[in-house]
Amino acid sequence: MRHGKKFNHLGRTTSHRKAMLSNMATSLVIHKRINTTVAKAKALKKYVEPLVTRSKIDSTHNRRMVFSYLQSKDAVTELFKEVSIKVGDRPGGYTRIIKTGNRLGDNAEMCMVELVDFNEIYGREDSKDAKKATRRRSKKTADSSKTKNEAPAEIQDNVVVSEDSLDNDTNQEEKEKE
How many other β-carbons are positioned within 10 Å of the β-carbon of residue 27? Predict the structure, then answer.
């Protein structure tokens, strides 16, 4: 029976689960983005978010508490120096889970877990430019219909053609026939 089991055990013993989450959290802090299964990502989110909240206040006690979870001095330094500065004003929700499809081998649902303020792909000012571009296209289509209507009025009747250009044209036509 499943009474009183509040979190996903991920099919592992307690020590294996703690070691796996610690390694995944360390990788997430150092690389800012990792790929994993959705179940592990949800467990990792619950594991990492309190650590990021602790990193906002840089004290010896908080560093030691975070080190007890991460077991990596490099990850702790990275968390307190770079990550905490970027998320200083954010009240929570430091990680994002983006589903990427199913794994080929066992059809497990895969995802990408990333720290929210470290994305370089989307969610920036580029999205505003894309909206402007769609508006411009609609205006261009309206402008192009006007130019089509005005084109016959703008045709010039006085076209001067030199004899040299006519000779060149006939020479080129003869070459093409050969």
Answer: 17
Amino acid letter for position 151: A
Place of tokens 């690389």: 31
Q: What is the band of 61 on the pLDDT scale with cuts at 50, 70, 90? A: very high
pTM of the entire predicted model: 0.67
| Residues 20, 90 contacting (CB under 8 angstroms) | no
Q: 33-37 and 95-102 as β-strands: parallel, antiparallel, unpaired?
A: unpaired
Name the residue ranges covered by the structural domains of the chain: 14-118
Cα distances (angstroms) measured from residue 152 to each of 17, 49, 149:
76, 67, 7
- Return d(Cα 147, Cα 143) in angstroms, integer: 6
Architecture of domain 14-118: Alpha-Beta Complex (3.90)
Residue ranges of alpha helices (H) inside 32-114 are: 38-55, 60-70, 73-78, 84-86
110-141: pLDDT as tens digits: 999 999 988 877 665 544 555 555 556 665 55
